[in-house]
Structure formats: structure tokens, C-alpha cells
Write a structure and sequence with these properties.
It is an enzyme of class 2 (transferase). This protein has 281 residues and is α/β, with parallel strands linked by helices. It is 42% helix and 20% strand. The chain folds into two domains: 67 residues, Chemotaxis receptor methyltransferase CheR, N-terminal domain (Chemotaxis Receptor Methyltransferase Cher, domain 1), CATH 1.10.155; 191 residues, Vaccinia Virus protein VP39 (Rossmann fold), CATH 3.40.50. The strands form three sheets. The protein has a five-stranded parallel beta sheet with strand order 6-2-1-7-8. Strands 3-5-4 form a three-stranded antiparallel beta sheet. A two-stranded antiparallel ribbon has the order 9-10. α2 packs across α3 and α2 crosses α4. The longest helix is centred in the N-terminal third of the chain and has 17 residues.
Length: 281
């Protein structure tokens, strides 16, 4: 039996309220598939029974599980590769020149899911920064469960096979039972916290680079504008923003300018784009 229209409307409203993510009609099968494990975990006979109970008697923990299940996105190490190549080949050399006095970079992996992206960023910086430089990476996600997974820094064989070179696996991971765990020397550079990108963000030191990839596609235009403005407040004036391949700031927030970065594109605050530093698109 498929998800009823009323149950889908209830879930869509809950997810929209808690995360601003829009679940459009046609996602009923996805919602049901994602909620089957949740229903089993709480002892319900099925999704319909679980949602009926949740509507009769609201339960904060069960609501959080629903939101977590439906805001967990696909991820992998070095996903889509080109942004990471642009980071090491284009962005890091420019920032090294600009940050010679501090010799430290700060990077934010927003909506970092289970942690593959921030640890990929850590590997990229570890391999591209000059000796004597340091870096901090903050990974954030709306899902409490994903934050726990990221902090554990343990990944299955299937997960490490997706995107990691053999040499990187040997150098930056160690065996942990049937899994692989990121080594402490890399983990010490990475921290995680739960953040809702659509809500007012807590005060944080500004970032040199922000990865906000494959997130905006889930929001309506007004919410995209809110997120981009929130992000701009935490971005250094000469910082860099990477979005997903299907995402853009164009027509949403004119404070950003799209520039070429190697074989991909990135975004910078308009007043801070130096002439000749990157090509306009």
C-alpha cells in the first residue's frame, strides 16, 4: 500500500517546517522508502501506522527521525572531483598569497551529510598547503544522526571505494574492525556541528572557502536567497563559494559573481573579485 495523500502532506509540512526543504508531489515513493526503517525502529507495523501515531500524539524524537531520514543526501569522497581540483590548483595558491601573515585557512563544508566531503577537503588541504601552514574545517548538517556519523569518522569498505585513491586510503585511514577510520592527524583539523542553514546562524569566525554543494536545489527561491545571505555573512570578503553543478546564485542574489576556477566555476562576493584573479562567466 502506497503513502496516502494526507500522510504525504503531513510529512511534507513537517519537513518544510523543520528544514525548509520542499517535498513536491511525486516524491511519495521516496518518502515511504525512507520512512520504512524509521517505522521499524520505533516498533510500528508500517509507515502508515507510524505516521498515524505521530499525528495523534506528536513526539519530538520521532519527528526528528523523520526529518533526518528525509534530509540525508547522497555523498561520496571527492564527489564530482572538479571542485576539489579547483580548490588545490586555483584557490589555495591565491589564498596562500593573501594569507601569508596568518598561514592558516578556514573552510566550511555546509550540509556535510555523513562526513565524506569535509574529510575530502582535509585531504586536499593536507596535500596542497605549503609546509608550516595550518587549517580548520567545519562540517555542518541539519541531521543529528549525520553529525554523529561524521564525528565517528568511520566508513565502510563500499564508502571508501567511492572516490578515494588507494594511496589516500592507506595514508589517511586505519582499520577499525570491518570499517576504515580517518587517522587522528587528519581528524584534529575537522569539527562538526548541527546547523540549520535557513535559520539565523550562530556567530562563527569567517571562512576562506565554503562548500555549499547540492543543497540549494531542495529550496524555493526565497529560501535560497535567505541561505545565500546567511552564508555571505560568514564568508571573508575575498573568499570562495562552491555550489553544486546544477545550482547558481544568478537571479537569486546579486551580491555574488560567478567566476571560472579551473574546469569548473565558483562564486565570490562582487566587491572582492580582483581584476584578473579569475575569469568571469
Amino acid at each position: 500500500m502506497g503513502l496516502s495523500a494526507s500522510d504525504f502532506a503531513f510529512v511534507a509540512a513537517l519537513v518544510r517546517r523543520e528544514s525548509s526543504i520542499v517535498l513536491a508531489p511525486g516524491k511519495e515513493y521516496l518518502v515511504e522508502a525512507r520512512l520504512i526503517p524509521v517505522a521499524r525502529q520505533v516498533g510500528a507495523a508500517g509507515v502508515a501506522e507510524f505516521l498515524a501515531s505521530l499525528q495523534r500524539m506528536p513526539n519530538a524524537d520521532h519527528q526528528r527521525r523523520v526529518v533526518d531520514a528525509l534530509t540525508t543526501n547522497e555523498t561520496s569522497f571527492f564527489r564530482d572531483r572538479e571542485p576539489f581540483t579547483a580548490l588545490t590548483d586555483v584557490v589555495v595558491p591565491q589564498l596562500v598569497k593573501a594569507r601569508g601573515a596568518q598561514r592558516r585557512l578556514r573552510v566550511w563544508s555546509a550540509a556535510s551529510s555523513s562526513g565524506q566531503e569535509p574529510y575530502s577537503l582535509a585531504i586536499s588541504l593536507q596535500e596542497s598547503l605549503p609546509p608550516g601552514w595550518d587549517y580548520d574545517i567545519v562540517g555542518s548538517d541539519i541531521s543529528t544522526e549525520m553529525i554523529k556519523r561524521s564525528e565517528a569518522a568511520e566508513f565502510s569498505q563500499v564508502e571508501v571505494n567511492r572516490g578515494l585513491a588507494a594511496q589516500q586510503l592507506v595514508q589517511y585511514f586505519e582499520r577499525s574492525g570491518a570499517h576504515w577510520r580517518v587517522v587522528q592527524s587528519l581528524r584534529r583539523h575537522v569539527s562538526f556541528q548541527r546547523l540549520n542553514l535557513t535559520a539565523p546562524l550562530p556567530p562563527l569566525p569567517p571562512f576562506d572557502v565554503i562548500f555549499l554543494r547540492n543543497v540549494l536545489i531542495y529550496f524555493d527561491v526565497a529560501t535560497k536567497r535567505t541561505v545565500l545571505r546567511n552564508v555571505a555573512r560568514l564568508m571573508r570578503p575575498d573568499g570562495w563559494l562552491f555550489l553544486g553543478a546544477a545550482e547558481t546564485t544568478i537571479g537569486i542574489d546579486d551580491n555574488y559573481e560567478r567566476v571560472t576556477a579551473g574546469r569548473t566555476s565558483a562564486y565570490r562576493l562582487r566587491a572582492a573579485v580582483p581584476a584578473g584573479a579569475a575569469g568571469r562567466m
